[in-house]
# Entry
Amino acid sequence: MQFIRQKWDIARIQWVIWVLLFGINVLNLLHFDTLLQSMGYSVIIISSYMAIVYGNAALLIPRLYMRQQKLLYVLLVLILLIAVALYRSGTSWWFYNTYYAPKPQDFPWTSVFGALVSSVLIYFTSVLFYIALRYFHLQKQQQVLEKKQVESELNLLKAQVQPHFLFNSLNNIYFYAQRESPVTAAMLEKLSQIMRYFVDEAPKDIISLQTELSFIHNYIELEKTRMRYPLSVSVQETGNTTDVQIPPMLIIPLVENVFKHGIDKRREDNFIDISIENAEQKLTVTVKNRIAETGPKEESGKGLDNLRNRMQLLYGDKSSLKAEPDDVLTYTAILSIPL
# Structure
């Protein structure tokens, strides 16, 4: 509700400013024209201002200047300013000739230059307007990030209730299971390691890639015990992955998505191929699996959407996540983050 209220407040402020400018223009023109004539000219003037402000701040700057297309940006700004100047002069001339001129008047080309100078001044105002919008946008992102951090800390506190008691209990069960059922003991050991990861590593801002891969290995081994047929697992590492540091829980959503939507337990040829590559100061993680015949053919669930949101907060536009079917049989997810 606070975000919706803030968004409405920004829109209201803009409308109030435009209405005030309209009123000021009408009052200034009343010294020379009638009320209706002043209002008509004011509509033309304010609409030309709005075309420059929103055309530059909402379209040209974010889509061209911020994407390093500066030459095209300058060219389109010039076209915008000239077009608005011609619109303002031409519309004012038509309005006066149509409703108020005692006889038709020639087009005042000199007024185009005056309108162009005014347009240039409004252009600089539009730059300030974009900076203000950017500030509000960053402030909103900061609020979202702070809210997510508070929620994460609360969830972490909930997950850490008596962790030592739980680990001690698992160790006791492991001790007895080791004598009666070595397979059960091995599963308990992997489960204990996974839970220690959640308690000790997940709260950190950054961990080693090898710690994350060890966690993923334990996760896959536990998931394999639920399957009727063997699962083919391949993990390949390219480049220096020993010293790489990443945020925790960044890769596991890709693997988790495989077991949720990409494993057909009736088939004997399920596979998951994981490729980790460190090259050109970028870490690329590729996860490929067979598509379950009974499952969806496209990305599903909220796990990957949440991962995209997290990557956007951590890396902005420097990261990417592509997840889609290669064909009717295989599905590939590719995560790329800067190092």
Q: What stands out?
A: The domain at 230-338 is CATH 3.30.565.10 (Heat Shock Protein 90). Residues 109-159 form the longest helix (51 residues).
